[in-house]
């Protein structure tokens, strides 16, 4: 009867809506601020998804994104970030897993995100807020795990301060100041520090040069562990690392270096790696080893390089 036809009609409308909901994702976003959610959030994104969002700001502005929720099936599904249009040349980093990533600021006026999922299992997805930053704003750099941030203003001249909860030590520079860089853009003068558990190895290294070595106890086959070092130079300077010893068995250990080629460099094997040069005034090293390794570890020398020629001619 008529009632039956109506039911069929509404079921069709429902299915068309559902299919559109599943198949449409991504898009181009403009405007001062907004939010982006993965399709189906928080009930899970579809399998085989390939969603691209492009955020476009006015030319001299940048884009700041802050994640509010993040759960993406680790190592199978990814959210890739691009500093510009979603082209391999603009690739910035790839996010996966179940931890809320730190805020990200674009280097230019276009920023893209691409969610890709495989053909099995999904997770609840992500939600983030974006905001267009004027060239005089640094944006909220976020709080590291186990960290506390004191400061609510993030514009040129503002200073913020970090500390760690009890049981954790701060690695890096505790005070960040929003300054103008040589490209006339507002940037934080140091990276966000990390909070390292008191009983783990690593530390903060400064000064014009020094040596970093994996600890002796981690060259013992029966010990597993990890260390994190932060190397800092003055704002505007860069840092280079030169390896003198290197033996990290593939699959049983690695040395990850952040702050050079994005998103990071992973080193393992028995060949002395090429020198590493920082993009800015910091590098962060993360050494991990399991209980079955047969390696010695590594030794390297770091050296700060002054960029301004004025400085080098004055010193010494
Ligand atoms: C966008 O900015 C306006 C004005 O500052 C604010 O009222 C609004 O809550 C913001 N929206 C989002 C999604 O952040
Ligand atoms: C996602 O779509 C873009 C273009 O729309 C394409 O270039 C890219 O290869 C796709 N990625 C995957 C993993 O299918
Ligand atoms: C935060 O900073 C302000 C100004 O520098 C200071 O007065 C205040 O004591 C700080 N608060 C904490 C909890 O560190």
UniProtKB/TrEMBL annotation:
Q: Does the keyword Zinc-finger apply?
A: no
| Keyword Disulfide bond carried by entry | yes
What region holds the CUB domain? Answer: 25-133, 201-305
Sushi domain location is 136-197
Q: Which UniProt keywords apply?
A: Disulfide bond, Repeat, Sushi
Q: Which InterPro entries match?
A: CUB_dom (IPR000859), Sperma_CUB_dom_sf (IPR035914), Sushi/SCR/CCP_sf (IPR035976), Sushi_SCR_CCP_dom (IPR000436)
PROSITE patterns given in the database record: CUB (PS01180), SUSHI (PS50923)
Q: Which PANTHER family match?
A: OVOCHYMASE-RELATED
Q: What is this protein called?
A: CUB and Sushi multiple domains 3a
What is the native source organism of this protein?
Oncorhynchus kisutch
What lineage is on file? Eukaryota, Metazoa, Chordata, Craniata, Vertebrata
């Amino acid at each position: 009867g008529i009632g039956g036809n109506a039911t069929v009609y509404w079921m069709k409308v429902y299915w068309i809506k559902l299919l559109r909901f599943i198949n449409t994702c991504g898009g181009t976003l403009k405007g001062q601020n907004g939010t982006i959610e993965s399709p189906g959030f928080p009930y899970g994104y579809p399998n085989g998804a390939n969603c691209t969002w492009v955020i476009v700001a006015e030319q001299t502005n940048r884009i700041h994104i802050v994640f509010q929720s993040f759960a993406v099936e680790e190592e199978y599904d990814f959210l890739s970030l691009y500093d510009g249009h979603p082209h391999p040349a603009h690739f910035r980093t790839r996010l996966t897993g179940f931890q809320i990533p730190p805020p990200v600021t674009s280097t230019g006026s276009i920023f893209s995100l691409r969610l890709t999922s495989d053909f099995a299992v999904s997770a609840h997805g992500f939600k983030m807020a974006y905001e267009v930053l004027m060239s005089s704003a640094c944006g909220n750099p976020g709080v590291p795990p186990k960290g506390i941030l004191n400061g609510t203003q993030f514009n040129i001249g503002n200073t913020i301060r970090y500390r760690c909860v009890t049981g954790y030590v701060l690695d890096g520079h505790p005070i960040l100041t929003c300054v103008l860089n040589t490209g006339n853009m507002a940037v934080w003068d140091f990276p966000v520090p990390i909070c390292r558990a008191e009983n783990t190895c690593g530390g903060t290294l400064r000064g014009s040069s020094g040596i970093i070595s994996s600890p002796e106890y981690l060259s013992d086959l029966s010990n597993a562990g990890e260390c994190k070092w932060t190397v800092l130079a003055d704002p505007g300077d860069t840092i280079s690392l030169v390896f003198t010893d290197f033996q990290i068995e593939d699959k049983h250990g690695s040395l990850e270096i952040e702050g050079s080629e994005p998103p990071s460099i992973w080193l393992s094997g028995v060949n002395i790696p090429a020198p590493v040069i920082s993009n800015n005034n910091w590098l962060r090293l993360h050494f991990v080893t399991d209980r079955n390794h047969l390696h010695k570890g590594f030794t390297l020398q770091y050296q700060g390089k002054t960029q301004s020629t004025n400085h080098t001619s004055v010193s010494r």
